[in-house]
Design a protein that fits this description.
93 residues, alpha+beta, Alpha-Beta Plaits, 4-stranded antiparallel sheet, 6 strands
């Protein structure tokens, strides 16, 4: 279950969204579904999730000497918590 969440995405923009809207951003596995992400967040952080939005972020090709490197594609999940819920790892970011 915890393999679904790779890492939290902490930035100024994500911290502002967490503070104002209660929306937290996580990097998740590419094959994770919305119910899997919701269940993983609820069990890992002991909070109630209202909604989950996902997007696949396509990586850019890069050049290494004369070869063209493959892009690193990853998936981002925006998790909105119910009113009054907070995740403590995003505090003070």
């Amino acid at each position: 279950m915890f393999e679904v969440i790779k890492k939290p995405l902490v930035s100024e923009k994500n911290a502002a969204h967490a503070e104002d809207l209660g929306v937290y951003a996580f990097e998740v596995q590419l094959d994770a579904s919305k119910p899997d992400i919701q269940k993983a967040i609820e069990t890992a952080f002991n909070v109630k999730v209202e909604s989950v939005r996902t997007m696949v972020c396509r990586g850019k090709y890069f050049r290494k000497q004369a070869k063209l490197g493959a892009p690193k594609t990853w998936k981002k999940a925006l998790v909105k918590l119910k009113a009054g819920e907070k995740i403590s790892i995003f505090e003070g970011a």
